[in-house]
Specification:
GO terms for molecular function: calcium channel activity; calcium ion binding. By secondary structure, the chain is α+β, with helices and mostly antiparallel strands. Helices cover about 55% and strands about 10% of the residues. The strands form 2 sheets. Strands 4-1-5-6-7 form a 5-stranded antiparallel β-sheet, sandwiched between helices. A two-stranded antiparallel sheet has the order 2-3.
């Protein structure tokens, strides 16, 4: 029995034992129960195998290495196998024929060892990164939820605009109308007397869509300015403690912990340590930037009566005054059918001149992605992606481990960065899942009587999306480096290498002019147009208009400084920036591209390309596919003889060449290329001669025997095709 056959039998027995054990587990503990248990069992099996691969095998090899180091063993030299098969001259000639048949594809172009090593490394990297990139894209598609946008847009319209029995947030013209809006649109819509029972933690459904329920209670937070004066500096928001009615000095009220809903609206909010990391951001408002981790807040109740009492108390104590800069209403809704969380923030800004500006922010995320909630094909994609990621990480770490000089290469550093970024993404996803579970546990424990800030999970989900976008960008850039074997990618890379200095200079000149123009647009039209209200908004508007995205802006937005000035601004933006500067930038890149192409044509050397290398290096794979019925090409006579078919084909080729010469589409081939082609044809002729000589020797051996073949073997007959 050959070693390969013994290893194959051992492998078959091992796989059979594993499949029998897995089948027994499924039949005994999962098959007769619900489908979720089958998923859980399958995930546990994969996790055990991964634990053995990642943790168990390294520990085993460490123990073996320590054992062999402390107690070394003698080297085992196996005995020579006397029963091995003996090879005769016929076997030698058969192997020689096969070797020469494969050598027919190899010419002098294939003897460039440096080029072959480069192509071999490219093929390995292309297989490694191409496979990883493919499964990464599938994993991203598996996490994509197309219904999030429609759901968030529906909630935003229901909160912002008027309806039959409810009015929208945009109808508020004064800050004193806010409490009426809360009572009518946020409390009455979650009717506790509804005939439809709560679907999650005894929460009543939403009247607009009974699939939605509220998690926790509503929190109302306000930011107060320390003074009414508005100067050049940013407004200062107070964080002092007050008594009800914004009275001072503050003093501790007896039994404050029992009456916290009464005293809490006048005391600054307290935040956890994790909030300083996840929620330390600013809301970008219409008038100012509002910090999240500051202000005074109050919690509403679940019942109408209690909420009415809280709102009446806040109204009597004048909780909203002229010093109030912005009010934020935060709550979270959950859709059981879609497994979707909607984190909602209603913002109402009070301007210094008395008006208010509303805004509705809805962020929809699927925060519960446990294995029980995944579909079978999503689960399969995730598992394959993890296995491919482990193979990618193993190849990257091995390359650096065995040769530390590879760390000097930027692309190897990028490989380590990609693998590390994958690990960070997985860690953030597991941390977000555990955080959401703990928040849901708080909702179930407190019985929807406290505010649970699901924005922590939404911020982590947003961080995951940003990291995944960066990961896809780095992986695409790495694939760009691998695809440099193609002439198009190589030519574009050479163009960037030649033109980066003038292109950067031209880009800086365009940006300087664009910055100045955008600042001028802000000064002239900023007070009358939302598109030029801020500098970055003006910059985005001008860039979109320059590249043709002008459907959202009307030319009248530029005429607030007068018709003459507006006409000049529109001409500068529409002609000078869009036509002159952008076209000059593109024309410069085009000129350098032409120069790089001409240089490549002048320095072009006839060498082996990547696809020819693959055809020889992986000949077995190509032969397998060419033997398939769909790729197999047979000879069709078409009721003609072989000579007639050859004559027709050669006549067609000659007519085609004459036509191309007449149209002047054939390039003049230089002498170097002609000499290279002539040498290649001569080498192929020599290889064919040697191959034919070996075939004749094998034929004589099989027809007349070994002795007869030696007797009639011609002496120096094939010297014409010999390399000696």
């Amino acid at each position: 029995m050959t070693p390969f056959r013994s290893h194959l039998i051992l492998f078959t027995i091992t796989i059979s034992i594993i499949l029998i054990c897995i089948g027994s587990i499924f039949i005994r503990f999962g098959f007769h129960q619900e489908l979720v248990r089958d998923k859980t069992n399958g995930v546990r099996i994969i996790m055990v195998l991964m634990f053995q691969y990642l943790v168990g095998d390294p520990i085993k090899f460490i123990i073996i290495a320590v054992d062999r180091t402390i107690w070394p063993r003698d080297h085992y030299v196996p005995d020579m196998d006397k029963s091995r098969p003996e090879y005769d001259r016929e076997d030698f000639l058969v192997q020689k024929v096969e070797r020469q048949r494969r050598n027919l594809l190899i010419t002098s172009q294939y003897r460039n060892e440096k080029l072959n090593e480069m192509y071999k490394e490219i093929s390995r990297d292309l297989w490694l990164f191409g496979r990883y990139y493919f499964w990464l894209m599938l994993a991203m598609l598996a996490t994509w939820e197309p219904r999030v946008y429609r759901s968030s847009d529906m909630i935003k319209k229901l909160m912002l605009f008027n309806h039959t029995d409810y009015y929208g947030l945009e109808e508020l013209v004064h800050i004193n109308q806010l409490f009426d809006y809360i009572e009518i649109n946020l409390i009455n819509t979650f009717d506790t007397n509804s005939t439809t029972p709560g679907t999650t933690f005894t929460s009543p459904p939403w009247v607009h869509a009974e699939q939605w329920v509220m998690l926790g209670v509503i929190r109302v937070r306000q930011l107060r300015r320390s003074s009414r004066k508005i100067g050049w500096s940013a407004p200062e928001y107070t964080d002092s403690s007050y008594l009800p009615g914004w009275q001072k000095p503050y003093k501790v009220v007896p039994y404050e912990d029992l009456h916290w809903r009464v005293t809490r609206p006048w005391v600054p909010m307290k935040w956890l340590a994790i909030d300083s990391f996840l929620l330390n951001f600013h809301h970008i408002g219409f008038f100012d930037y509002y910090p999240e981790l500051r202000g005074y807040s109050t919690l509403l109740s679940r019942s109408k009566v209690s909420t009415k009492m809280v709102l009446d108390f806040l109204t009597e104590q004048h909780w909203l005054t002229r010093n109030t800069s912005a009010i934020f209403i935060d709550f979270t809704m959950y859709n059981v059918d879609m497994n979707l969380f909607s984190v909602i923030t209603l913002r109402l800004e009070q301007l210094p001149f008395g008006g208010v500006l509303p805004h509705v922010g809805v962020e929809g995320y699927v925060l519960l992605r446990d294995f029980d909630h995944l579909k079978w094909y999503d689960l399969f994609v995730y598992m394959i992606y993890i296995l491919v990621l482990l193979q990618f990480g193993k190849a990257t770490v091995n390359k650096v481990w065995y040769d530390s000089r590879t760390l000097k290469n930027v692309w190897n550093i990028m490989d380590l960065l990609i693998f590390g970024l994958n690990a960070v993404v997985l860690w953030v996803m597991f941390f977000r899942a555990s955080l959401v579970r703990s928040m849901l546990k708080n909702v179930s424990v407190f019985g929807n009587m406290d505010f649970v800030d699901f924005r922590r999970g939404s911020r982590l989900e947003g961080l995951v999306h940003m990291l995944i976008g960066l990961l896809i960008c780095l992986t695409t850039l790495r694939l760009w480096r691998i695809l440099q074997f193609a002439n198009v990618f190589h030519l574009f890379n050479q163009t960037l290498r030649m033109a980066w200095q003038p292109v950067v200079s031209m880009a800086m000149m365009i940006l300087i002019f664009l910055f100045g123009f955008c600042m001028m647009m802000v000064i002239i039209n900023g007070n009358n147009s939302i598109y030029f209200n801020r500098f970055f908004q003006s910059l985005i508007t001008c860039m979109c208009f320059s590249f043709g995205f002008s459907s959202h802006i009307h030319p009248s937005e530029m005429f607030h400084g007068g018709k003459a000035v507006g006409l000049i601004l529109y001409a500068i933006l529409g002609f000078f920036i869009c036509t002159v500067l952008i076209n000059v930038f593109v024309a410069m890149i085009n000129n350098y591209f032409t120069m790089a192409k001409e240089r490549r044509d002048l320095e072009e050397v006839q060498h082996l390309d990547f696809f020819q290398f693959l055809r020889v290096e992986y000949q077995g794979i190509f032969d397998f596919y060419m033997r398939l019925p769909c790729f197999r090409r047979g000879y069709k006579r078409n009721k003609r003889t072989v000579s007639q078919n050859i004559s027709i084909t050669t006549d067609y080729i000659e007519r085609k060449i004459r036509f191309q010469r007449r149209r002047k589409k054939i390039k003049i081939v230089d002498e170097a290329k002609e000499e290279s082609d002539f040498q290649m044809r001569g080498e192929q002729l020599l290889l064919v001669g040697e191959h034919m000589e070996t075939q004749l020797q094998l034929l004589r051996l099989r027809l007349f025997g070994e002795k007869a073949e030696e007797a009639i073997r011609p002496k120096q007959k094939w010297r014409l095709f010999s390399r000696a």
